[in-house]
Design a protein that fits this description.
The structure is a homodimer of 231-residue chains. The termini of chain A are far apart. Chain A is α+β, with helices and mostly antiparallel strands and 231 residues long. Chain A is 43% helix and 26% strand. Chain A folds into two domains: 140 residues, Sandwich (Jelly Rolls); 83 residues, Arc Repressor Mutant, subunit A. In chain A, α6 runs antiparallel to α9 and α7 crosses α8. Chain A has nine helices and ten strands. At the A-B interface, α3 and α5 of A face α3 and α5 of B. Chain A binds a DNA duplex (30 and 30 nucleotides) through α8.
DNA sequence: CCAACACTGTAACTTTATTGACAGTTTTTA
DNA sequence: TAAAAACTGTCAATAAAGTTACAGTGTTGG
């Protein structure tokens, strides 16, 4: 499928908030790239070759140890930019980025990026909220692991997923409408799949959630918040 | 002790790299504040009332759970700014900041900060490297906790402390010249003091480090790096 | 439609770290 | 200089989570 750049930018929040001339410039110098499931956008240790805007699909930002243990740092959705840190500070990529399912990204090569920023230094300010948000997110993860037991962290993560992916269907409760196996949930929290399975089952037995194959339904949001506060 | 602002700024890297007119402006609108040991600079949840530049002493950035368990996120040394995130994104402080020992800080009130940035939007770019550095640091902490066992994380932290505080005296090895009880080391790594004591003792028994009351001497830096890589 | 694959639940066993308790040492301070 | 405070080492008991293993269920693709 060929994707029209104009179309992307019209329907996508990627460029909202940017001055019109910058948008025009971006249209001119960026490229749309199609990515197959599992394809690598960039890898830890790479030089920062450019900036990526997610247009379609989902990107997995993660970090792996030598033995293959993986930490899933975040899922990046359409409308978000990734890879800006290496462009801004010139250091290598600190994470791996992989396509989950087929994706389309808007690619801005580093030379173009540098030229743009050099011409318009006031553009730096557009990266500030992005960096602040990611910094707070990262800090909240450190905080979580260091200060809270698994049940509380899991409850918090479910609440976050609910806020982002939660939908109301005709059935009671709210469905978290995203394909996320317990394996990945475990990798997000830095624990084993079995530990997640055990905790989820406990939540289910207490009527807080309902589980089905590849599905999670939140029945009692307040109970999840309690789980988080008491700990 | 009264501290002269001019003197501070001459000897301190706080303002290096800033344009001369901005330095003048900062001199005019900032205030030097003295802080006693343990005094609070700001607390988690507070509104961002201003920007702080550490001039003298050391600031402890940390995060506490309801039950009093503390995570020591970082030690901030003279020459570093803190508190910029809340000023930049308008959200509450995400950490506590306390003086460790008597400190002096340069305080720039939020209204002055906002006015300065409004007048000179190109100043945003001075915050970019700061935010990138803190983001990478936070990510490396998450990564550490999720992917590596305690011995490797401890070894890494000792190496970081060595790089920053290491001094060569007449004795063999390198002394880490900072007052840092095992209790605080434990709070940095999110584990119990006893676990740290055990691991340090093991390192000592293997000739990697030497311990004394409130002192840590690194005898074999390479062995620490091995500890880190094999895991 | 069925075989391969992906995902989930559970259990026994081991490893790792926590907690609480206490003794001993060094430093600080009154 | 004596008493208080801070810091360290160690141990036993307990808890949390990892690991290994396997059965079972649901989904997908040829």
């Amino acid at each position: 499928m060929v994707i029209d750049k104009r179309e992307i930018l019209a329907t996508n929040p990627l460029l909202s908030g940017l001055p019109a001339d910058v948008v025009e410039e971006l249209m001119a110098v960026s490229v749309v790239k199609q990515l197959a499931d599992g394809e690598c956008v960039y890898a830890q240790g790479d030089d920062g070759d450019g900036l990526f805007g997610v247009v379609q699909g989902r990107i997995r930002l993660s970090n792996s140890s030598r033995e293959g243990k993986e930490l899933l740092v975040m899922l990046v959705e359409p409308g978000d930019w990734i890879g800006e840190v290496s462009l801004l500070d010139g250091l290598p990529r600190s994470l791996d980025a992989f396509a989950m399912g087929d994706c389309a990204v808007l690619f801005l090569p580093r030379t173009r990026f540098d030229a743009l920023l050099k011409a318009k230094p006031e553009l730096y300010q557009y990266f500030i909220p992005m960096l602040c948000r990611k910094l707070r997110l990262a800090l909240s993860y450190v905080e979580g692991v260091a200060l809270f037991p698994l049940p509380a962290r899991l409850a918090q993560r479910i609440l976050e997923l609910l806020a982002f992916y939660g939908v109301n269907d005709d059935k009671p409760g709210m469905l978290i409408d995203v394909h996320l196996p317990q394996e990945d949930l475990a990798k997000m929290l830095g624990v084993s799949r079995q530990a997640i399975s055990r905790e989820l089952k406990r939540f289910e037995s207490e009527g807080i959630i309902q589980l089905a194959y590849g599905q999670l339904r939140v029945m009692d949001e307040v109970a999840l918040q309690r789980e988080l506060e008491q700990a």
